[in-house]
Amino acid sequence: MEKKNKIAVFPGDGIGVEVVREAVKVLDALAEKTGAGFALAYGLVGGAAYDACGDPFPAESLELALTSDVVLLGAVGGPKWEGLDYSVRPERALLGLREKLNLFANLRPVNVYDELIEASPLKAEIVRGIDILIIRELTGDLYFGQPRGVRVENGRRVGINTLVYTEEEIRRIARVAFAAAQQRRKRLLSVDKANVLESTQLWRDVVTEEGRAYPDVELRHMYVDNCAMQLVSHPAQFDVIVTTNMFGDILSDEAAMITGSIGMLPSASLGERGGMYEPIHGSAPDIAGRDLANPLATILSVAMMLHHSLGMPGEAEMVETAVRQVLRDGYRTKDIHHEGAILVGTAAMGDAVAARLLP
Length: 359
Ligand code: NAD
Description:
- The protein has helices at 15-34, 47-53, 59-66, 91-100, 124-127, 167-182, 198-211, 224-233, 245-258, 296-308, 313-328, 346-357; strands at 4-12, 37-42, 70-75, 105-111, 131-137, 149-153, 156-160, 187-192, 218-223, 240-243, 266-270, 275-279, 331-332, 342-343.
- With 359 residues, it is an alpha/beta fold.
- It has 2 domains: 1-108 and 266-359, Isopropylmalate Dehydrogenase (3-Layer(aba) Sandwich); 121-259, Isopropylmalate Dehydrogenase (3-Layer(aba) Sandwich).
- A 10-stranded mixed beta sheet has the order 2-1-3-12-11-4-5-10-8-9, sandwiched between helices. The protein has a two-stranded antiparallel sheet with strand order 6-7. Strands 13-14 form a two-stranded parallel sheet.
- The chain is globular, with a radius of gyration of 20 Å.
- The chain starts with a strand and ends with a helix.
- The chain binds nicotinamide-adenine-dinucleotide (NAD).
- Nicotinamide-adenine-dinucleotide binds at residues 15, 19, 75-78, 91, 94, 262-263, 278, 281-287, 293-294, 297, 335.
């Protein structure tokens, strides 16, 4: 019998619901074209889950994620839930999924499509041909280190966070990065602040040690401040970039903006098994429910899922080709629209991609 790939689908909040609907449309079209089997099971996370049961990450959703091959997520959050205690904020679901699925590597490809080059805030000659994969460590660094918090010492407040990385944490993300570089142009840049931070000198040392097992990959190191500059001055030089949780958080958003629209960028979070796939954008309450959201980031996240977790690189390429085709044919959602292009809404964009997959 045909193997069914079990996908836990968490649309979440705001435009998450709209863009996931289009991604599912594309999966359905792919199944129809290739005969691939997908078993989709829906769950609640984020504000939607809080509204339903008072918990942004209910036990049933965790169970669903743990018993599925992969997770497809829309986005969580919105003004409605901003006043809630941190323990029940929608974002807890994201952190919970990362933690429980042990997702330690976040992959963000940054490509500039020729058709969208004018959408970039940078000059066309600078961004043409950009094809970067940013790999961000996801479970360590200042975001999780102890001690943390704000306390009062000698009558004044002191804020503390701790930057901590173990050798094992660095090694496992380095391996993901070297392996990814081997599949691409075989150039890896490791970004740190080793001139000031001892913890990132360890990062540099361990990445260098791991590199000995990948003699075909050219490894370079760069300080994060320099990398931030180079990303806007000479972005085309980069192939794979691997970096710490916080530097990756900031650099990947900077890189995203180079492409012109947040609505185009997919991401994958990988662990020992499975993975979670989601667009990099949030729930966009300002445009939610109005058929304005660009679903391509989520559709491209499905392509990453097919490639990285479901062992279907051919199908992944079909989806990517369909997206490129739709852009070439002139279809644009509002965020990437320009004069002369065909303005479409969220659902019509999903239809257009699905139509190019069908025989
Ligand atoms: P956002 O990414 O939701 O939106 C930023 C801007 O980009 C908005 O103007 C929005 O309209 C636009 N935008 C985003 N995605 C788009 C798309 N697909 N098509 C067209 N335009 C798009 O970020 P924000 O406004 O800072 O956050 C809104 C909410 O989302 C907050 O509650 C935040 O916490 C949450 N958030 C969630 C995630 C996630 O679920 N992974 C990530 C970031 C933010």
